[in-house]
Design goal:
Layout (H helix, E strand, L loop, with lengths): L1 H5 L1 H19 L3 H23 L23 H31 L4 H9 L1
Helix pairs in contact: 2-3, 3-4
Subcellular location: Membrane
Keywords: Membrane, Transmembrane, Transmembrane helix
Family: Belongs to the CPA3 antiporters (TC 2.A.63) subunit C family.
Length: 120
């Protein structure tokens, strides 16, 4: 049990991922599915940022004196997360645009109702 309390950022990331995954699976509203997908994205970003931070090291910016490679955190996880955020925002915008078009076509954003319209 101490593992969860000592690694609270990772624990919060896992809880957020579960909330997002549950929201994605259990709702038929497309807007809620997009929100669930975004919660899952943020949980993954939180997890990687928490794992990339090393206590006692500085950000990889040399101010006055170079401290050696062991004096700084690895900048690769931060760069990957920044790229992931850009991809996440683009994916969300595209999904919202498709949802808007579905709403214009069918008058609803409920995927069950849209599926039933196609069968009638």
């Amino acid at each position: 049990m101490d593992v969860f309390f000592n690694n609270y950022f990772e624990t919060a990331a896992m809880i957020l991922f579960g909330i997002g995954f549950t929201t994605l699976l259990l709702n038929s509203n497309l807007i809620k599915k997009i929100i669930g997908f975004n919660i899952m994205d943020m949980a993954i970003f939180l997890f990687f940022i928490a794992r990339g931070y090393i206590e006692g090291r500085d950000s990889p910016i040399i101010v006055k004196v170079f401290k050696g490679a062991e004096g700084y955190i690895n900048p690769v996880p931060s760069a990957l997360i920044l790229t992931g955020i850009v991809v996440s925002v683009s994916t969300t915008a595209f999904a919202l645009a498709l949802t808007l078009k579905l709403h214009e076509q069918y008058g609803t954003v409920d995927i069950d109702e849209i599926s039933n319209v196609g069968e009638e």
